[in-house]
Amino acid sequence: MEPRSDTVQEDFNYDPDRNYDEVIMAQQRIIEKEIAESQPLISNLLTFDEIVEEYSDEDSVYRHKIEDLKGRYKNMRKTRGDGNCFFRAFGFSFLEKLLQDADGYKSFVDVVHKSKDMLISLGFPQFTLEDFYDTFVDIVKQVECPGTVEKLLETFNDQGLSDYFVVYLRLLVSGHLQANEESYIHFIDGERTVRQFCSQEVEPMGRESDHIHIVALTKALQVPICVEYMDREGLACNAFNFNPSDATDEADPKPTVTLLYRPGHYDILYPL
Amino acid sequence: MAGSALKRLMAEYKQLTLNPPEGIIAGPVNEENFFEWEALIMGPQDTCFEGGVFPAHLTFPPDYPLSPPKMKFTCEIFHPNIYADGRVCISILHAPGDDPMGYETSAERWSPVQSVEKILLSVVSMLAEPNDESAANVDAAKTWRDDRKGFEEIAKVTVRKSLGL
Question: For residue A137, is it left (φ>0), alpha (ψ between -120 and 50) or beta?
């Protein structure tokens, strides 16, 4: 192809009165909107045959790993890639599990009720906390009505409700990290305090979750999580268990929530 | 979720009325529309903006507080972190990732537990301590850096103008 002479680069004349930063941010909003229109926040149940189509025939590593998953899991749900996928995937999957676990539900409700005062004691202003807490509690209560998977799915695909639920999970992680500062300070990069890390990497919506967020959520809610890591290394997915207890001599408890990690993104897995 | 935004804005208005921070007055332009606020900010003591009263406008998005508001001074003000048209450009008005100015990693960012009060307090600090590393008004940043006296002169004129003198 002949190189075109009227390339963008030549046309570009810096206009000092134009705000380029805002143009870039506006473009980001458009991309986010496109993602929002094409992906539900939480999808219906999918089979691995549907997932495998995302990869080309030549992509033998990923195709292999999907075969590996098929041996251990029956289904998955995809979540929207908006930076909140870990929290949203966890939230939906956990409440879905509680539909079948009345005791687990009761002890979770206790943890939730205590959490608000804990967060206030850490210095979160009550008037900024209240709406998120109230929405969170309302959604958790949908489990016992008796709740249905369909109703939960509808709630988690309602952007407003779903986002408020995610905000409160983020606050629970922030609260746990701050209350146990000495255990986490050495895992924080960039010479930041735990408080700074929380206000920049945990509390804002859309900030992606790292190992430290998962560890903190597991411990804050006392819920074991298993993450299947699917990357380009090796032939099988690597399962990693996050446990609420620090005791190393105990066998790993059965995970309540299992997530699939592909670089930068979390989805929900359903064991066979 | 405009209903949640409204509820939150009403709670914040109540909070600001009951416990007003020093040097700040803020509230909805009219009680029919809680998504447009005006604020009056007093120039901080012992700075070149001391004595001034600077009016500003805040516009809240329908998904507030998930997203931050926008803030714009409606008076003339020459400052490194305020665009020539009055728009305020400080880190707390941006979620992490929205990085128009390459803020330092330690800078305070928007999150749903921030508030109007926190924003306005940050703006007061910004008036007292301009950040010329991430300038919205390059002229103002240069003057602040290279000609502090000149900057203070301009600020004093702004203060008088803000008082209608």
Answer: alpha
